[in-house]
Structures are given as structure tokens and as C-alpha cells.
Design a protein that fits this description.
- The protein has 187 residues and is of the alpha+beta class.
- The strands form two sheets. It has a four-stranded antiparallel beta sheet. The chain has a two-stranded antiparallel sheet with strand order 1-2.
- The chain contains five helices and six strands; from the N terminus they run H-E-E-H-E-E-H-E-E-H-H.
- The protein is elongated.
Amino acid sequence: MESLDDVLLESDDKMSKSVEFLQQEFGGLRTGKASPSLVENINVDYYGAPTRLKQIAGIATPEPRLIVINPYDPTALGAIEKAIHGANIGITPINDGRLIRVPIPELSEERRKELVKVAHRMTEEAKVALRNVRRDANEAIKKLQKDGQATEDERDEALKEIQKYTDDYSKKIDDLLAAKEKEVLAV
């Protein structure tokens, strides 16, 4: 049987994971500057198994507008190049037989606005996830009280705590969005 503390801990953990997931998603959202996070989570068909790029290659950004991918196994060059093309992130890899260079083109104003819309959509999805966690936690808390596991006062305190978690994580999400928007719109 769950206790109120279990419900609170689980809710905090799930909300925290929603924020972490959004951070990862934002990492893959292209800005005008090179970042390994843009390509590191692309799945490459490596000997028939989908493998994250960061597990089979070294990824570096020697210049602000260039990502260099150095595969640990040179036979993976073609598969890496194909995976980057297939990822639809608007960048074209250049395979020189040893390394893959990925020049990051300047973003147009239109593309920047599009990326901001994508960031807003990701943010909304994260907030929906928070609200779902809150709803599930509130139902669990009310059930515990109904089953005699908690008093009305304990239930009310726990419901307030869940709302506080929701507000705190929602603010973190808004802060992440504001930072990403600023980064995308910066020329």
C-alpha cells in the first residue's frame, strides 16, 4: 500500500523527469551555433542495431559553426552520414572518408520563428505531462484518505504540496523556454 509520502516522492520524481526530458528535447533544437547535442542522440543503424551516435563516435565542435564527427569504427561513416540525412534537422553532413563534418548554416528569420513555435509546442507537451502527474497524484491522495490511510488535514496538505510541485516545475519549464527562445532568436 502506498503512503502519502510515496505519492509525493513519486510525483516529484516524475515531474523532474518531465523537465529533464524537455531539456534534452531543447538540446536537439537547432540554433545558429554548433552543439554536439544537435546530433548526439541520432540513432544510427550500426550493424543492424539502432545505436546512438554518441556511442559510436567522438563529437566535437572545433568552430562555432562546425560539428566534427569522428567514428570509432571507420566502417560506420556511411551509416552515420545516412542517419544524419534521415534525421531531418536541416543540416547536410560532408563525409571526407575519415571524418564527417557538419557545417551549421545561418538560420533565416523565418526558420528562427518556426523553431520558437516548435519550442512552444514542446513546452506545452511538458506542461501537459506535469498536469497528468498532478491529476494522478491528486486521485491517489484522495483514495488514500477515502481508504482511511490519511486524515482530511493530511490529504489537504498533500494536495497543496502537489500543487506547489506543479507550480515550481512549471516555472522551471517556462524559464527553459525563455532561455531557448533567446538563444534561437539571437543573431
